[in-house]
Structures are given as C-alpha cells and as structure tokens.
Amino acid sequence: MQPFSYEKVTNEHEAIERARLGNATFVAGGTTLVDLMKLNVEVPAALVDINALPLNQIEDQSDGSIRIGALVRNGDLAQDSRIQSRYRVLSQAILAGASAQLRNMATTGGNLMQRTRCYYFRDPVYPCNKRQPGAGCAAMDGYNRIHAVLGVSDKCIATHPSDMAVALVALDASVHIRGANGERAVPITEFHLLPGDTPHRETVVRPGELITYVTLPSGPFGAHSAYVKLRDRASYEFALASAAVALQVEGTTVRSARVALGGVATKPWRALQAEQVLTGSTANTAAFRNAADAALTGAVSRRYNAYKIELAKRAIVRALTDALMD
Amino acid sequence: MSTAVGGSISRKDGWVKVTGRAPYAADHPIAGVAHAVAIQSTIANGRITAIATSLAENAPGVLAVIHHGNAPKLYRPENDFMSATKPGEARVVFEDDRVHYSGQYVAIIVAETLEQARYAAELVKISYAVEDPLIETDAALDSAYLPDEFFGEKLTTKRGDPDGALSGAAVTHEASYTTPIEHHNPMEPSASIAVWNGDELTLYETTQWVAGARKTVAQTLGIAEEKIHIVSPFIGGGFGCKGFVWPHSVLSAIAAKKVNRPVKLNLTRKHMFSACGHRSETKQHVRLGAERNGRLVAIDHDTVVQTSTVEEFVEACGNTSRFLYSCPNVRVRHRAVRVNVATPTPMRAPGENPGLFALESALDELAYKLNMDPVELRIVNHADVNEHTRKPWSSKYLKECYRMAAEHFEWARRALQPESMRDGNVLVGWGMATATYPGIRSPGAAKVRLLQDGSVDVISATQDMGGGTYTTMAQIAADVMGVAIERIRTVLGDSLLPPAPVSGGSMTTASILPAIRKAAQDALSKLRQLAATMPASPFTNRPHDDIVAEGGRVFPKGADPSSGLAYEDVLKRTNQSEIEGEGYTGPGPERDKFAFQSFGAHFVEVKVDPEIATVQVSRVVSAFDVGRIVNPKTARSQGYSGVIMGIGMALMEHTVYDSRDGSIVTSNLADYAIPVNADAHSIDILFVDKPDPFIDSDGLGARGVGEITVTGVAPAIANAVYHATGRRIRDLPITPDKLL
Ligand SMILES: Cc1cc2nc3c(=O)[nH]c(=O)nc-3n(C[C@H](O)[C@H](O)[C@H](O)COP(=O)(O)OP(=O)(O)OC[C@H]3O[C@@H](n4cnc5c(N)ncnc54)[C@H](O)[C@@H]3O)c2cc1C
Ligand code: SF4
Question: With a cut of 0.90, is the ipTM above it?
Fold first, then answer.
C-alpha cells in the first residue's frame, strides 16, 4: 500500500474540483477501492471521500421514473419498498450479491464502478493489460475458470462482477454523470465499455467525473421479472453465470422481453438476440431455450471456462421460467 | 457421583471469546512491540541472485531487513515427532539462496508500525535466477517414489493375493478418485510475538503443541529448551496447520533479537496459503473384488500424493483400507512426487479423509453393481477384528452407528435405483458412508490445585483449539474433586505447565483427562493427610485413610459429611494456601492387545436441481462410536463442524495453483470458497456413547471426537449425488460445471 492523502468533501462542486487534481480518486463505501489499494492494484495519491454528499435518496420523479442517488447503499436500495414492488429484479440481484455487511457499505455508484475479480488483475506480480496497458494477459492461458465468454478480446477476458448492474441493464437504467463541464445521462448499456484493445478503460466516466444518480424508467416489466445467480456456494459468492430477465406477456404470447447476463461477459450484458427470439413467441421452455441459445451465439471460451456457455443458458431458461410464474 | 462428565456443559471459554476478551496470539498487549512483515518469493523454483534493501532500509520507521544474506545461523531441528522436534519443513528459514516453492519466506522487514513495515516490504527488490518449476502431479509422475513410513506405519503393505483374487472375483469395480489441494483456513491466522529478556525468550503463539514449539524453536535457534517459554492460551482453529512448527515462530525470534525489542509477526491470509501447510492433492486408484453376496475378496488401494522438496509428508490415503472391512486380500501402496509446492501437513484426519473418499465411493459403486443396499454391503463386510494388526478391537459399535443413523434418517424409505426420488422438479439423492479414525492416546501430565477459597485450578500444557478442552478438563476435575464446575478454572496453553501431547490426532481427551483424574485424586489424598494432622478437629487421631474427602467436604469415614469440614476450612485451619495434586498417565500394554479405533456413519440427503446444476446438502444424520461422550454439547459441535467441513470438501474447496509459475491464484477467502451458513442445512449428530473399556485404566473410556467427524462426509455426499442424478463424480469438488 502506498501513502496517500485523504479529504472529505461536502458538495458535488467541491468533489469535482478536488478530483481534477492529479491522481485523486473518489471513495464511497470503499469495499472495492481499499481492497485494491492494499493489493497495490490501485495506487491513488489522494482519496476524496464523497460519503457526505447529499446523494443518498431514492426519489419518485414526476414522469414515473425513479431516481437513485449514487450514495444509496446497496442494502437500502434492495430493501426499498418501491424497488421491491416495481423493480423486483433489481432487489433480487443486489441481495444475491456479496454479504449483508458489504451491501451495507457498498454504494450504487461504487457498485457500477467495481473492478473485476480476475485473479491476475488483483496480483501485481502478473502481467495484466487492464492494470498495465500493453503488459499482456496472464489469464488468457492461465487459470480462467471464472472468466468471460462474451464480449472478450485478445487483450482481456475479465468479467464484470456486478449483480446489480445486470438488473440495471435489464431495466434500461441510465447513469447520470457530472463533470467540470456539466452533467450528462448515459444509457446503462453504453456505460461500461468492451475491453477491445483498451481493457484499462472500463466505463465512460472520465477522470474527475462523478456519478450522481441512476434513474430507472417506469416500464411494463414490473410484473414478470427474475434474477437467477449460479455460483460455487449458496451465498456470498460471485456469479459463475447469472441472468436478469423481464417479460411482458399477453395471454401466452411474449409481447416484449429483456434479458441481461452477468458473470459471463466482460461487461453487464444485454442479450438483444435473445430478446428478439422471445418477442412474439409463445412463452414456453422451448422458446426460452431458443432465446438462451441465441444469447450465447458468438461466445468464445478458453481452457477452463467452456462450461459457462451452457451454464449461462441454464440461468436464462430458469430466470425466464421464474419470471413467467412470478 | 459423576455429574459433570457426560453433561452438556457450555464452553467455559465461550464468554471471554464472544466478548472479545480472549487474547489470541496477536492480541497480547506487549509494550514497545515492533511489527514485522514477511516477504514471500514470487517464483517457485530457482535462486535468489540479489536482494536490494536500501530503499526499504531508508523508509520511515524501518528497524531491520533480514534475509538469508544477513540472518543469524539457524540449525535444523531433529525433525522427530516422537521427541517433539517437528518443524513443518526440514529446511530452516533463510538457510540459503534456494527457492523451493512460491510463497517461501525470502526476507522479513521490521518497523515501528505495521503500516511502515508493509510499505517497506514493497520497496525490497528481489532478483531471481528462475528455473522451471514442477507443479502438477502428472508432470512429476516419472519421478514418483515409494516413501517408507508415515508416523511409524508402513506405506506399502500386502496380505493375501489381491491380483489373483481380483481376477477370480465374481464382481469387480475399478476406478480413479482425486481430491485437490485444500487449505485448513482457520479463522485465526498464525501469529507470533517474540520477547527476549536477556537470553530468555517468550513466544506468544497460536499453536496446537506448546511443548513441540518450545523444543523445536529452541533447537532451531540453538539455545536450551529451558530458555524458551511458549504462551498460547487461545487458538482460533487449527485443523492441523498449527501442529508442527512453521518458520514464522523462528522469524519473530530472530527479528526481536536483531532489533533488541519485542516483535510481532502476524501472517496474512495470503501467507497462510503457503506458510503453514495444506492437504496434498491425492490421486487414488481403487480396485475391489467381491462375491455375488457382497463379500469382499480383494481391495487394492493405490495412491499418489505430492510432497515438497524440503520435507516428506505423505497423505496416507490407503492405510484405512487395510482394516475398515473384512477382506482376505489387500494391497495398499503410496507413491509420492516432489513438486515445487509448499509442504503439506496434517489436515483434519490426514489420510483417512481423502482415503475414505476413494474407498467409500468405490464401495458405493460396487453396491450398485451388486444391486445391494450400501449399508447392507458394509454390514456383510463388517470387520470383527482388525485384520491388518490381527488384534481385537477394544470396543466397536459400528453396526450400532449404521442402525441409529439409518433409523433416524428413515433410510428404509430409500429407493435403490438412482434418479428415482424427486421433490417437485428437484432430484433427491440419499447416500451414506462409513467414518473412522484411530483412538490415539499419548502420555500426559496435569496438576490440580485446591485453593483456600475452595476453588480449584486444573492445569496442563495442553491446548484448546476451540473444541472444548477448557471445559472437559474442568468437568473431570469437578467430578473427582466434588466441586461445582463454576468453581474450577482451567489453565492451559503454556509450556511451563505439566507436559501434554500435541492437540492433534484427536488424542487430547484420552490423554489428558485420565491425568487430571489422577492429579485430583492426589490432591484429595493430600487433603486427607493434611486433615489427619489437624489438632482439635473431627479427625484428631484418625489415620488419613480413615478420612473421606468428597463432595467438597472432609469427614471421618462412615460419618455424616456435615460432621466434617469444608475443603477450604481444612486449608484455612492448617494455614495452607493451597494443595497441589499431580497426575501422569499414558498408554500401557493394552496397546499391544487391542486395536483402538473409532467408527461412525453419515447418511446424507442432497437435492440436485439438474437444470441449473446446483447441489444442496439438505439433510445429514451422523452417528459416531467414539467411546464415552464427556460433553454432548461440545462433542455435537465437533460433529457439526466435521460435517460442514465435509460439505466444503465435497462441493467447493480447492486451492488452485497456476502451473506456469506455481503461485496460488485463490489465496484469499473470496476465491477459496468454504461453506457459509446457507450451505449448511439440517444436521443431526448422534453418539453411541459406550465407554471404551480398555483405552484408559480409569474407567473414563473416551476416544477423541475431533477428526472422525469429517471422514466419510465427502463420499456420502458424492454417493447421494449419484443416487440423485446417476452421475458419478470421482474428482472433488463437485462444482456446478461438473454436473452440467
Ligand atoms: C468479498 C466481496 C464479495 C463481493 N461479492 C459481490 C457479489 O457477489 N456481487 C456483486 O455485485 N458485488 C460483490 N462485491 C462487490 C461490491 O458490490 C462492491 O465492492 C461495491 O458495490 C463497491 O461499492 P463501494 O461504494 O464500496 O465502492 P468503492 O470501493 O468506494 O469505490 C469503487 C470505485 O468506484 C468509484 N466510485 C465510487 N463512487 C463513485 C461515484 N459516485 N462517482 C464516480 N466514481 C465512484 C471509486 O473511485 C472506486 O474506483 C463483493 C465485494 C467483496 C469485497
Ligand atoms: S483477463 Fe483482463 S484483467 Fe485478467 S489478466 Fe487478462 S487483462 Fe488482466
């Protein structure tokens, strides 16, 4: 761990001003950042503590959407009655992640920004393009059982580990980002970047920019939604594969569908092909399986993670089945 | 009269533990302590060519940087378990520039604060001449060798003609079974605080063997054993990784000497993955031959394990197969390969646990071939004597274990065919396996001290790893002394106390409790003698054997206890501050006559959701024959912990090494999964509770309960998974990818 300075800010303007100074990093719950600082993976010169910013509310908006402050704790978000009734898949996804203690610290903004659990990323002894552009990728021919099969590049195959973000993708959320030049809203599907040749660039957030809110549009997907997470133990474990789905069904016909995947892709993954297969089809296991196959077309596996292709399909089928019965 | 022994008494140390007042090794408040951080090698094979320390030495607060180039001379200890000189590895730390495995200690930093030491550790630059490491068993098979013995037991044995019997057998089964490297992962990482006072050293440790630590560290440092004092009152779990002496206990000592003040070295979780042992990977090949009626005619159990290049430790998987069932033709062989991986060490039921995964899985497979209930198959092959040593069992209630557990589990409702039981869309599987572990006993000593306030100290240099020794020691003292258990203090975990064996091999109860009984009897005898000397008392002119000391009172034989005096009044009126009894016992000729062995059985229900490849261990019923149960409550907890550890072994635990460079990629508790509460469901622990008539001469009859509980759990689960799904998984752990 390297020495660093620490400062607590009380308003957004101050936060952004401070963060513009060299190599400063926001700290919210600290559950990702401090961990990585101890491992020397993150080496900020300055920590700007944003926990005192007034961004900890969940608010109904006049257009029927819901606005979630970036500092709302994951635990509070999951337990919110509006989220539980109107966006159940989000509540389920959050509660499937980490532990109660971590969820009570982790924030909405921090969760979106969390880094991969790739073993080699977390150990500076190994070459890692994400940690050190151009260094190479130790996972490619290493132990890659937990790595991604979708959205991979020859530079990086690390998964994005978030559960929450997968539900946000299914719910068409947008992320509000504020910088020195004002605020913008980015659709969640465009928020995270594919690794491509630049795996060190993970999101559209530029240095010094602050996530202020996440908004959830009102939508027809409250009724039928589900999150299914498959993993090596029953709790407190990252996903090997997960699926967040939402269905709008009329009679037995799927009017529209949302399918998003976690644990198998380099970013929280929207499976548009699966949604297309589902739309207009009869809601049954055969259609769900077709959708699952479509979702994983183009998947690329390495030595230890081929099983994820089938596992992800199983997660999708189960989630769709659960959503239908919901 | 016995009331405390056999009672479900809550842990005496529970209160100080849950209120955070129990000092674990790193918690002892030592004035002026400096902090050490150990640096581990990042290569698995090669030499250190240079260590650049000047940046670190000039960093704030740094007091010393120690490595092989400037370390004091250290000596290899005898390395003999029987004489309590057992290091984890024969090579002493900083012996030379060689690197044998990734994670080997290569330097240590001492600084004013922990943060300064950590920071400086990152500034040390170490250069290596790297050689290709040998990491995987398969890659090393060519150089496999036949180790001779493991703790006095031959590792290759044969009786009868297994090959001949196999070729003539009506039914045979043959398969390979593998278990991965597993780590103990106790809650409390190892730690050591060294305090020198002149040439005398006090080490605050977390050790399963204070006597072993004292002698082994003394020999390593080249000083007299009497100069070292080991203090280890509380242990946050050990499971074997705190049994032998590992380098950190020496590192803190040489660091403290060098900086001339106390030094604390607290290992991180990452250190724990290469600095104090693990369970070796095992590759086992089992061949079984049987008659149509299920009678075994041949067992061949062939094992390959790993050991390191700096020590020989062999996971003796096959040795149980020599006697668990009746069988005329048995061959057991162990081969070892030396790899560039840190040294394996005992981990809860070393040998028995992975060995039973193979044997008990194989037996299950044979049962299906015979179309026979797996319990029936085991009963048909019940071993009435130990056919390996040809000794009768001291006592054996294995059939009773099968019966008790099966009944409680309602095994009779089981359908024989796999994939035949369901709960909605979920497949239900029922499996079982036998559990076993030897009934070991070692010499041990104890003192019992009666104080003037009527309270009692019970004292021995044994250890409590969390299993309940604080409580069981007090229980037997309470019964013999006739003093309420609340008035008894247990003192242990200190090398100045009467010597006791390692808290390993499930031997503590059988070794220490008889010594305490003797010590308490000795204290009472001294009390009676004292009473006999009292003038103007109810005892005047009575010989001491005409006086009774019982239930807290001293009184003339035949008289009403109320006519006598309370223990404390005898002490007060004779102006004695205390009376101290001593006891020393050990195993005797009974060991030549009998085979001492504990047995048990696990019955397991799993629910497998085949579509999503998920296994839930929904119900476990386990029954054990471990002699007398001294404390059902703490014994049951050992049962729960063994079963839950077995769930971990069956479903998730495995340490992953990157075969390219030999480092561990899962060296933390997020990437190395152990069971959480959500993985443990209904667990019922039953005991036969019949005293072993021969294990001690004092009528206690308790064999240990620590290790047996984990044996057999993993195969019972794998057998249940097969019964649920028709899928036989022979390679642990049974993770979702293997069930797709
Ligand atoms: C053992 C363990 C298990 C876990 N298991 C799971 C799991 O199963 N599923 C899962 O989804 N997650 C899991 N997590 C991850 C956890 O959800 C994240 O660590 C958490 O959400 C991060 O939030 P935080 O507020 O603590 O972020 P911090 O650590 O404070 O910050 C993380 C990053 O986000 C940046 N940041 C934070 N807030 C803002 C903001 N408002 N604007 C711009 N940048 C910001 C920080 O600069 C930093 O780079 C686990 C974590 C641990 C340690
Ligand atoms: S997969 Fe990505 S994060 Fe992991 S080592 Fe390769 S480049 Fe680094």
Answer: yes
